[in-house]
Design goal:
By secondary structure, the protein is of the alpha/beta class. The chain is built from 11 helices and 11 strands. Strands 1, 2, 3, 6, 7, 8, 9, 10 and 11 form a 9-stranded mixed sheet that branches. A two-stranded antiparallel sheet has the order 4-5.
């Protein structure tokens, strides 16, 4: 059957109308997604969660080049609205900053994820226009010397600083940097309960950490986190929760490690820690060892830090943004 010119034009116009309608719907959806992202980025205390089993390959190695980089960049773009992850760093750091990237040295050899995270973050910062000589790795993971970042200053400052009822000397490296990118691992801690963002920001950067080892981390961890030398320099926390320790940490046998394959991020380190605690408790419950509060090891320093205005510790008030590719 032949198709008349009128029928052809009529069908073409109908098809064009459908395409325009579909495009309009897509543009509306994109606009809504952009608005949602902007609102999420502006929400105080928001914690971004990315879970991807492919962060580890079949041999248990971190897929650094594609999956890890893509995961962190996806979180950063969701947080800031930047078109590319490498452009998002400028929302947290300026080119004049000396950026200290703080890693967790304890059990790094067991978890086998910190070198990959360090290489990925440094390369991303370099791709974003930051200079290696203005990047300092604090407690650097092994196999990162080739990154050619600025060496961290050794030793501790001469002056003793009052911190709560105690005094301490801060690391010279903390005085060296103007901004901190906090990259902790997620671990159980025999004394503190939780070792993550706040513990990573404090205990490795003072001369006498043993004097601040309070049960549940209170008030020692909160006292240190409230110090201007730490509080005013922290810009962003990215939790390496790819492999984690669910019991017996921070130094634990290999059988206490679980593959969470997650990354958490936020500007509110207290809120990030509270969400990390939720992941840790879930892992503990699934393995029959009980949540930390049930076994008398609740990390009380989170509530204390929140009471001092350092962030949100009430899980019900923390906006959790689940991110995916």
């Amino acid at each position: 059957m032949s198709l008349s010119r009128r029928d052809f034009l009529k069908g073409s116009l109908a098809g064009l109308g459908a395409l325009c309608a579909a495009r309009a719907l897509r543009l509306t959806a994109l606009a809504q997604e952009t608005a949602d992202d902007a609102q999420a980025a502006a929400t105080p205390g928001a914690v971004y969660e990315f879970n991807e089993p492919k962060l580890l390959d079949t041999f248990g190695n971190v897929q650094e080049d594609l999956i890890l980089r893509g995961s962190v960049h996806r979180i950063l773009t969701q947080m800031t609205g930047a078109k590319k992850g490498v452009y998002a760093w400028k929302e947290f750091f300026s080119k004049e900053d000396v950026i200290g990237i703080k890693f967790q040295p304890v059990s790094a050899d067991l978890l086998r994820t910190s070198p990959e995270m360090a290489r990925m973050i440094v390369q991303s910062l370099l791709d974003g226009g930051f200079r290696a000589e203005r990047i300092v790795l604090l407690c650097p993971p092994p196999y990162t010397a080739a990154l050619a970042t600025a060496p961290a200053a050794r030793g501790y400052l001469k002056d003793k600083i009052p911190v709560g009822s105690r005094t301490t000397q801060f690391a010279r490296s903390l005085d060296q940097v103007t901004a901190i990118l906090n990259v902790p691992s997620l671990m159980d801690h025999r004394l503190f309960g939780l070792s993550c963002g706040l513990v990573n920001l404090t205990m490795d950067l003072i001369s006498n950490p043993g004097e601040f080892f309070d049960p549940g981390g209170t008030p020692g961890v909160a006292d240190l986190a409230a110090c201007d030398a730490i509080r005013k320099k922290h810009r962003l926390t990215i939790v390496n929760a790819i492999r984690c320790i669910y019991d017996g940490g921070p130094r634990a046998p290999a059988e206490k490690v679980w593959n969470q394959c997650s990354i958490l991020a936020g500007t509110d380190v207290v809120a990030v820690d509270r969400v990390a605690l939720d992941l840790l408790d879930a892992a503990r419950l699934s393995r029959g060892v009980g949540a930390l509060a049930e076994v008398g090891r609740d990390p009380a320093y989170l509530a204390e830090a929140s009471r001092r205005g350092l962030g949100l510790a009430d899980l019900g008030r923390i906006p959790r943004r689940h991110v995916s590719f």
